[in-house]
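Progress report, Aim 2. The chain analyzed during this reporting quarter is listed below.
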Amino acid sequence: MAQIKIKARVRKATGKGPAKRMRAGGKIPGIVYGKGIETLQIEMDAKEIHALTHGPHAGSLESVLVSLEIEDGGEEKARPALITEIQHDPIKRDVLHIDFHQVSLTEKIHARIRVVTVGECPGTGAGGIVEHTLRELDVACLPTDLPEDIRVDVSKLELGHCIHVRDIDLGPKVHILNDADLSIVSVTTPRVVAAAAEKVEEEVVEPEVITEKKEKEEGEEEAPEKEKGA
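Predicted C-alpha cells for the chain:
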C-alpha cells in the first residue's frame, strides 16, 4: 500500500480567528484524534498540503496510511494515521482543515476504498453502456495492508454481463464487507433502445391479431346471404 509523510507542529491557539491568521501565514490547521490518545491540535505547511492534494494520491488520500511527524517542544514523534476529512473552501477550493485518525498498526480497521475500472469494455462495442453502481467498497484489514484503491478489470465484460463483489479478490489480508451479490459494474442495453425494440415487437404482433379478427367478422356477415340463396 501507499504511504506518505506529513510534517506538523502542535498548536496552542484554537478558534476561527487564530485559524484564519494561520492560513494567512501559509499554515493549515488540523486535528489528530484516536483511541486512547489525547486529541492534538496541529498545523501543517500549506505548500506541502497543496502538493499532496494535487499529487498522485489526490483521489485516494482517505485510504492512504500517513506517517504524521509531529513536532512538540523540540521533539518529533511519528504517528500512523488516516485522513478522515479534508475541508475545502467552497469557492477557491483551498484546503481549510484536515482531520486525522491515529491508528494502531497491530489492530484491524474498517475503511472505504474507491473502485477504479481498468481496461476497454467489449460490451460497449455491441451498443451497451457501462453502469458503475458501486464506486467504493468497505474493507477490514491492518493499516499496513490497506489498498489505495480497488482496480476492477472490465476488459472481458460483454453486453448483459456484470462483475459482482464476490468476483473481487484482494488476497487473504483484506476482507471485503459488502454483500457478495452486489453488482459493482455491468454492461446493459440503453433504456431508450430497449423501449424502442419492445414497441417495434408490439407493432409486428398486433396487426396479425387484427387481421385474423377482421377475416372472422367478414365470414360471419356472408353467412345470411348464402342462407337466402338457398
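Residues 66 and 223 are 93 Å apart (CA to CA). The helical segments are 16-24, 46-53, 191-229. These observations will guide the mutagenesis work planned for the next reporting period.
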